[in-house]
Amino acid sequence: MLVCGVDEAGRGSMLGPLVVAAIAIEKSKIPDLEKIGVKDSKKLSPKMRETLYKKIIKIVDNYQISKATPKQIDLAVSQHKLNNLELIHMAKVITKLQPSISYVDSCDVNATRFGKEIAKITHSKIKSYHHADSKFVVVSAASIIAKVTRDRAIASLSKKHPVGSGYPSDSKTISFVKHWFLQNGNLPAYVRKSWAPAKLIVSQTLA
Q1: Dihedral through CA 123, CA 96, CA 87, CA 150, nearest 10?
Q2: pTM of the predicted model, to two decimals?
Q3: How far apart are the C-alpha atoms of 131 and 165, rounded to whole Å?
């Protein structure tokens, strides 16, 4: 029985991709993930996530990653379909893995509805829960894959620009975006222009 866990990273970020990751593993091997200390990526240090990432991909039978670009995210936000965008990417990775059952971390306020919508696309059994990354080790494993992939994307940007973590709560990120807009009169392609903090920076600078 092939069990799948699905989660995302970077949904709330002001810049960079939203990363959806899924792992597929034989049910009998799930305890192996617990043995190596897999848990919700938010409860792990960046160094520990990197270490576990390498171990996870050796244990699981397969894994898939799908990324939504800032441009795709902005389009989804303009149509009030951000949850739908995440749903499509989750369905995409599940379809590629062809598991017997999938556990997903729901971004929809109605977790059951979210699961049913994914099931319609994948024609497979979906179990959707809020905070699934802290309830099911297969989702925790997916959360680590997603978070490390996302962290690597931000690290790559950081080599060229002082973007910080990419989150609106990070003063370094806000400062960078403000400075860029003042210098160039626009926002870089990797910034989500639909995000309220980005809109505020533009409106305050133009005022």
Answers
A1: 160
A2: 0.95
A3: 22
